[in-house]
């Protein structure tokens, strides 16, 4: 069974530029999550999708971050414009459902904003 | 709102010694609890989870954790540490209609030969 795929693995941009991350979850998984993990901290949930609907985006900085999961499969997270404090690893995870199901994580995208 | 506190950002043990990583949670409703492991430059991998069944949960790689409601704790243990256990460990709690997951700040485990 293929795992959660993410691309790119690494990205370096300058502040005020835009960047997009892609995630392809495990086939059949209804729930998809995007997390931000700043160095030395635990992952922080940015947004949670159930199929193609958003069920939690309370910690997503909506003035600069956006995410979509149009067909309920793969997802894109965008930052526009980026700030220095956005430097982090962006993790995508998926699960069969949200009721205590195991989350399977991708390898992450490491973003450095200069 | 739920929260998780992991005591000790760094823990060092000798190879073969007991591993004990501490986690305390705060939740107004019965939670689901998880332990994840993260190796360098990789995503997180589930070690074990508590979902209101047995209070002693066994996971992969010889790890186990016990849910203690009276102490609001979910500490992770392993009887004998291996070098391959060196990694960062995250405790997490989920509650609510859509089981939003909140992670702790992590504990880095160092295993000394």
Q: State the major sheet of chain A.
A: 7 strands, mixed
The succession of helices and strands of chain A, N to C, reads: EEEEEEEEEEE
- Overall SS class of chain A: mainly beta
Please tally the helical runs of chain A, counting DSSP H or I stretches of 4 or more residues.
0
C-alpha end-to-end distance of chain B? 41 Å
Tell the overall outline of chain A. globular
The percent range for helix content of chain B is under 10%
Quaternary organisation = heterodimer
Helix content of chain A: under 10%
Q: What's the mean pLDDT score of chain A? A: 93
Radius of gyration of chain A: 13 Å
Helix vs. strand class of chain B = mainly beta
Distance between the termini of chain A: 37 Å
The major beta sheet of chain B can be summarized as:
6 strands, mixed
> Outline of chain B, from the CA principal axes?
globular
Textual characterization of the structure:
Chain A has 114 residues and is mainly β. Chain A is 0% helix and 48% strand. In chain A, strands 2, 4, 5, 6, 9, 10 and 11 form a seven-stranded mixed β-sheet that branches. Chain A has a four-stranded antiparallel β-sheet with strand order 1-3-8-7, with no helix packed on it. Chain A is globular and about 35 Å long. The model of chain A has no long low-confidence stretch (mean pLDDT 93). Chain B is mainly beta and 113 residues long. Helices cover 0% and strands 58% of the residues of chain B. Chain B is built from no helices and eleven strands. In chain B, the strands form two sheets. In chain B, strands 2, 4, 5, 9, 10 and 11 form a six-stranded mixed β-sheet that branches. A five-stranded antiparallel β-sheet of chain B has the order 1-3-8-7-6, with no helix packed on it. In chain B, strand 9 and strand 10 form a beta hairpin. The A-B interface holds A 4, 33, 40-45, 48, 50, 55-56, 91, 93, 98-100, 102-108 and B 32, 36, 41-46, 49, 51, 90, 92, 94, 98-106.
